[in-house]
Design goal:
Chain A has 20 helices and twelve strands. With 585 residues, chain A is an alpha/beta fold. In chain A, strands 6-9-10-3-11-12 form a six-stranded mixed β-sheet, sandwiched between helices. The longest helix of chain A is centred in the middle third of the chain and has 53 residues, at 223-275. The chains are: A alpha/beta (585), B alpha/beta (614).
């Protein structure tokens, strides 16, 4: 299942909402930048005034000194104010970006359980790392730079108009060609840069797999093949660069030329205006210099357009996560009357038109009993486990605990009743205590230690350099898979649900570790209702009751002995096992 | 680095050349502007048109030179970055395990992604810097001819300003580093939370993790703000200092105009020069930073490139033994008989794996202490290529690689360029190997089957699937000796049984060594070498060892029993079958013998009723 990506309308709405939310800060940054930009406008204006005074012969040494002092004051002011404007702009960028990523993570933390179980983590991980960091570029640097460039551009044009509107008309000749070529460019560049990014990621992936798999490459003499693959990735990276470079080969000189031509036009057109007395030499000079000063900010503004596109794509993937619909609508005051898990004609299909995998399951779990669910691969036994644990809601019939449908319980309550135990064990970055307190936030050290003692993990935890406070996870002490699984089991002890659904809990472990774990697991199971999705027959043998699931039906249900005596499917299975024993020994 | 520079001389020189032209255009622009104002605007005449035409020509040349410079810069950048990436990639492929033994793989990947880029940026900035310096000299020259004082002022003032700004950048680095570190921690935390999301949503703690992320995020923000405070001062200074410089030039120039020493147009030109000089100034400031980073990057790249392969040919190689030679690992005393299946078992699985790995010769230094005799010859004296061709070791965590699956699996072609095969023959061989590795179902699930293009590291497959595909690949290598280390550690017992069965068929009469503690696998071995801490203590078949009433038998059973459940039937009695008690196997057998009737799943389409009638 793929996670949604927000459409461009939502992205625009989000951007607008962000602007609204920060309009105060935004306005103050704009005002500061405007003031700072004014300082930068003094130069051409003063030069123009001086030239006019000189051509009129009214210039004095004192006047020049005053003008120079004004210029010094203007630059000092610009430098000083722009410092505060820049700072505020950057702080705004940091604030907005921090908020975006925190909101994103909050959404991720609330993702529906069924989605988390089926979507896999790859896509989400990419959004957490790649997309967040490519958005950082846009928000942290883009916002402040765009604000400066935009205010400077606008104010420079205004200053030019105030100096002499007629002359300034000449500055506008570049606008059409800039607009047209930029439009042409932006239409193509987005795709071009996406291909470039993909090529870059491919190359990075191939090189890192080469480094990580160096051993395999050496052992199987795969170096030539792998080198050929690297060369192909390098070639693709270069080809993708060629495309965008060709785009820029058209775009860059056109805009550069379009920046310069207006200045030439201002001179020619200004000379004519001076000759008819509609402008002074100083005014023409000032406007021409303003035209020169426009190049920098305009360039910056146009260049950020590309980055904005990249940022918008990242943003659409980040806010898209919020579009995942909730998978349950908990009834807040639903209180289970007891600890009995009951299935009534439970049916289930994945998606709206997927094949039905469970066709009417009826099952009553007695409190404290052990039920083994056996059946061939694909019979629906794992799905049944997921329904019992409240991960998915049945598409027909009901799955209830104490009379309340399991998916009607808020997740926090549900966990206290039923928990699913899989072979997946993730050790979080943090201390061992952090890893345990997930299950019971308020637990004190004594509680943690007794939970560890239950799963036989207290001894090795005490031997760790800092005991409970030892840093584990990536960058910390590396736990063995068995230790990680024990931590997971200790969490269950702290969580203390009355019913556990075990699915392949120990099947993927290192065979050497399985035995130790099985005794830890046994202690966790004590006193609880247990549903074991069994992969080995002995599990079934030890259970109070056995449910045989075949093609989405429970075909047999009862204690081991009576099923064996009944002579059905289970008996046949059991017999074949024993028969095999006899055959070999 | 110089070598790299020489490889792209054309682009480097081109970049410098166009950079100079581009900068000169910008430098000459104020001069022409000044002349136009003097000759055309101040004293209206048609001369202005000539000056305008000249300005237009410069504008065209500038735009074109700018474009060409950009092209050269990008080529410089991309070439050097990609070449370094390629070099490191090739080097890693050739060096093999030595590369990960000495450096963390993450570091090498970082070297490729950031250091290679730093190097690329360095080549790019060289071209810009040279252009900037030339332009600066030309501008100073023009100013010197107009006014010696102003010329000197620019000639000295610009480098001084550059130096001051460069010094100011220093403290910025530490704050940038702090910010980067905080960001790295935040990304790790985010990735960690997402990776463990199933646990968090299933057990709880998501709120706490979201809060932890938010707290860290605020820390990053604070580091960012801390950085912004200094950065903004620097930005302000970059406006202020050149501004003061500019004001001084205007003041001095205007006085010269008043004194009649220069014209109004020349004053405008001076103003233009002074604003233009900000560009080479910035380039110079950038360049110092980029060079500092580039040199560090170069050092790191060279560090990686200096790592040499663990197994290298000796001066006078011995002749490889004839096919069917016996392998003897001297340190452990293990003998691998040709043409037979040998199991290696040790209480410490790593010790058994170490013995198996030695057979493949990966680190010559290790063999000084622990030689391996191959048909009586020390195998470190045989050419490496010969060892690799005939002895293949598939380690406990083999990697899959990006690309079309069939090419990734059928390594024969990659290993032996002379090997030729038709498509059908290849397809048949691959299918057979997949069947032997119990991976046929995995392939059936792919839209394009064996022609599917898989992602890097084969990350779309589960651990068990990867392991089976790697096994198929190892079988396809079709080597004289195949060493498999824990080939079934990530698959369920049913599949393991299947693999154990088909392995014998796939490697019939050829030398095969398997490190495993699984009774399913060991039962299929001709002989098992029992080791204790890497030393041979006994040998025998699985059946013999299971019954053997001595220390070796006890040791063997203790290892093998660990891989079976505590609740299995009593050890020692019928352990031969203990591991086969998986329901899937039993179920299959039972249905085959007719002991259990099969309820078929109703078909997906609308024929469910018809199926029910049947």
């Amino acid at each position: 299942m793929l996670l949604p990506i927000a459409d461009s309308k939502t992205v625009r709405a989000t951007a607008r909402a962000l602007i609204r939310e920060h309009r105060g800060a935004l306005a103050s940054v704009l005002v500061l930048h405007s003031i700072a930009a004014l300082g930068g406008l003094a130069g051409p204006w003063l030069i123009g005034r001086m030239i006019d005074a000189m051509t009129a012969g009214t210039a004095t040494l004192r006047g020049i000194t005053i003008a120079a002092l004004i210029l010094v004051a203007a630059y000092t002011m610009q430098g000083f104010v722009s410092r505060f404007a820049q700072k505020q702009g950057m702080v705004l960028g940091e604030t907005v970006f921090a908020k975006l990523r925190e909101q994103f993570m909050a959404t991720v933390g609330r993702l529906p359980l069924s989605v988390v179980e089926s979507a896999g983590t790859g896509d989400l991980l990419a959004r957490t790392t790649n997309d967040i960091s490519s958005l950082a570029q846009t928000v942290r640097f883009g916002i402040p730079r765009i604000l400066v460039a935009a205010t400077t551009t606008v104010l420079t044009l205004v200053a030019a108009f105030l100096t002499n509107p007629l002359v300034t008309l000449g500055l506008l000749v570049g606008v059409p060609s800039i607009a047209l070529v930029t439009r042409w460019y932006l239409r193509r560049s987005g795709k071009g840069y996406q291909r470039q990014l993909a090529a870059h990621a491919l190359l990075g992936g191939v090189i890192s797999e080469t480094v990580e798999g160096a051993r395999t490459i050496e052992a199987l003499s795969l170096a030539p093949a792998q080198q050929a693959k690297i060369d192909a990735a390098v070639l693709e990276r270069r080809e993708s660069e060629k495309y965008t470079l060709n785009l820029r080969t058209v775009w860059l000189p056109t805009i550069e030329f379009s920046f310069l031509v207006p200045i030439v036009v201002v001179i020619g057109w200004g000379a004519y205006l001076v000759s008819i007395g509609a402008a002074t030499v100083g005014e023409v000079t000032a406007v021409a210099l303003y035209g020169t000063q426009l190049i920098g900010p305009m360039n910056e503004l146009l260049r950020w357009m590309d980055e904005l596109q990249v940022g918008a794509t990242a943003l659409s993937r980040i806010i898209g996560v919020a579009d995942v619909p909730p998978d349950r609508h908990p009834v807040p005051d639903a209180v289970p009357a007891d600890e009995k898990l009951v299935a009534r004609s439970v049916r289930f299909r994945y998606g709206n038109d997927g094949p039905e995998v469970l066709h009417g399951i009826d099952l009553d779990l007695a409190v404290g009993e052990r039920l083994a669910v056996v059946g061939p691969s694909g019979s629906g036994k794992s799905t049944l486990g997921r329904l019992m644990a409240g991960i998915n809601a049945p598409t027909g019939g009901s799955m209830t605990v104490g009379g309340v449908p399991v998916t009607d319980l808020p997740l926090e309550t549900l966990r206290g009743h039923v928990a699913l135990v899989t072979q997946e064990h993730h050790v979080f970055v943090g201390t061992i205590a952090d890893n345990l307190r997930l299950a019971k936030p308020g637990a004190d050290d004594a509680e943690l230690e007794s939970a560890l003692a239950v799963v036989d993990a207290l001894i090795w935890v005490r031997y760790m350099p800092d005991g409970l406070e030892t840093q584990v996870g990536s960058g910390g002490v590396v736990l063995t898979p068995a230790q990680a699984q024990q931590i997971a089991l200790a969490r269950l002890v702290l969580l203390d649900p009355h019913t556990l659904v075990l699915d392949e809990a120990t099947s993927l472990l290192d065979p050497g570790a399985a035995r130790d774990l099985e005794s830890s697991l046994e202690k966790v199971l004590a006193g609880r209702t247990v549903v074991a999705i069994a992969h080995r027959l002995h599990t079934a043998h030890d259970a109070d009751r056995v449910a045989v699931v075949q093609a989405g039906h429970i075909v047999e249900l009862g204690p081991h002995e009576s099923l064996v005596a009944a002579g059905g499917e289970y008996a046949a299975l059991w017999a074949s096992w024993h028969h095999e024993d006899a055959g070999h020994s | 680095m110089l070598w790299q520079a020489s490889r792209q001389k054309k682009f480097l020189i081109g970049g410098i050349l166009f950079g100079v032209v581009w900068m000169l255009c910008q430098a000459i622009w104020p001069y022409l502007l000044g002349r136009a104002i003097d000759d055309g605007v101040a004293e209206p005449s048609l001369d202005v048109l000539w000056w305008c035409a000249a300005l237009l020509v410069v504008a065209i040349v500038q735009a074109l030179a700018g474009m060409l410079r950009h092209r050269m810069a990008v080529k410089n950048f991309v070439r050097s970055a990609l070449r370094v990436g390629r070099l490191i990639g090739h080097h890693s492929a050739e060096t093999g395990s030595a590369i990960t033994a000495t450096t963390a793989s993450g570091e090498i990947v970082a070297t490729v992604s950031t250091d290679a880029l730093s190097l690329g940026v360095m080549f790019d900035v060289v071209a810009r810097l040279v252009g900037g310096i030339v332009a600066y000299l030309v501008v100073s020259g023009i100013m010197l001819t107009t006014s010696v004082e102003l010329g000197l002022l620019v000639l000295i003032g610009v480098p001084v300003l550059a130096a001051v700004l460069t010094l100011l950048i220093r403290p910025l680095h530490s704050r940038q580093a702090a910010w980067r570190e905080q960001t790295g921690l935040l990304t790790t935390l985010g990735a960690d939370t997402v990776a463990g999301l199933r646990v968090l949503r299933g057990i709880g703690g998501e709120d706490e993790f979201v809060a932890r992320y938010a707290a860290r995020s605020q820390q990053v923000k604070r580091a960012g703000v801390h950085l912004a405070k200094l950065q903004s001062w620097l930005d302000g200074l970059q406006v202020f200092l050149p501004g003061i410089f500019l004001a001084f030039i205007v003041w001095y120039g205007a006085r010269l105009v008043l004194a009649g020493a220069i014209s109004v147009g020349e004053l405008v030109a001076f103003y233009g020069y002074a604003t233009f000089l900000v560009i080479p100034l910035r380039t110079a400031v950038d360049a110092t930073q980029i060079f500092a980073r580039g040199l560090v990057a170069t050092r790191r790249i060279l560090d990686v490139l200096r790592i040499r392969a663990g197994a290298r040919d000796v001066g006078e190689p011995s002749r490889a033994p004839e096919a069917g030679a016996e392998l003897v690992d001297v340190a452990s005393g293990v003998i691998i008989e040709p043409g037979r299946f040998t199991g290696l078992v040790d209480v410490d699985p790593d010790a058994a794996a170490a013995v198996a790995t030695r057979l493949g010769r990966f680190a010559d230094t290790e063999h000084e202490e622990a030689p391996v005799l191959w048909g009586g010859v020390d195998h470190t004296t045989v050419p490496v290529a010969e060892v690799r061709r005939r002895i293949v070791v598939s380690d406990a965590h083999p990697h899959l690689f990006q690309g079309e699956l069939i090419d990734g699996l059928d390594v024969k072609k990659a290993r032996d360029p002379a090997f030729e095969s038709t498509d059908t023959a290849q397809f048949r061989a691959v299918s057979r190997a997949l069947e032997h590795a119990a991976a046929t179902e995995t392939i059936a699930g792919l839209p394009a089957g064996v022609h599917e293009v898989i992602a890097e590291r084969g990350r779309s497959f589960s651990g068990g699937q990867r392991q089976r595909l790697s096994l198929a690949r190892a079988l396809l290598a079709d080597s004289e000796v195949l060493v498999l280390i824990e080939p079934t550690s990530a698959v369920d017992a049913h599949t393991e049984a299947q693999i154990a069965e088909s392995l014998r068929e796939a490697r019939a009469d050829r030398t095969t060594v398997v490190v495993s503690a699984s009774p399913l696998i060991l039962d299929r071995m001709d002989v098992i070498r029992v080791l204790q801490n890497g030393r041979l203590v006994g040998s025998g078949s699985h059946g013999e060892l299971m019954r053997q009433q001595d220390d070796v038998g006890f040791l063997y059973r203790s290892v093998v029993a660990r891989s079976m459940s505590a609740a299995e039937p009593d050890a020692g009695l019928d352990l031969d079958d203990a591991g086969t008690g998986t329901i899937d196997t039993l179920w299959q057998e039972a249905t085959q013998t007719g002991a259990i009737s099969i309820i078929t799943e109703p078909p997906r389409d609308g024929t469910a009723d018809a199926a029910a009638d049947r």
